[in-house]
Amino acid sequence: MNRLYLTFEGPDIGESGLPVDAFAHALTGMQDAMRLMVEQLGGRPPGPGQPPRWVREQSSLQLTAVRPGSLVAELTLTPSDGQLPMENYGEQAVEAICSWDGSQDSTLPQAVTDRLRDIPSALPEDVRFWVGGADRRRKTEIKRPGPTSRSVQESEEAHLQGWLREVNWYRGTAQLYDYTGSYVRLRFSEEHAQDMLRFATQYVEVHGHGKFDQDENWTNVTVEQIASTPSWREPFDLEKFLNDPDPKVFDPDNLITASEPFDVDEFIQIIHAGRDEGRKE
Question: In whole numbers, what is the pLDDT of the chain averaged over residues?
Answer without folding.
Answer: 78
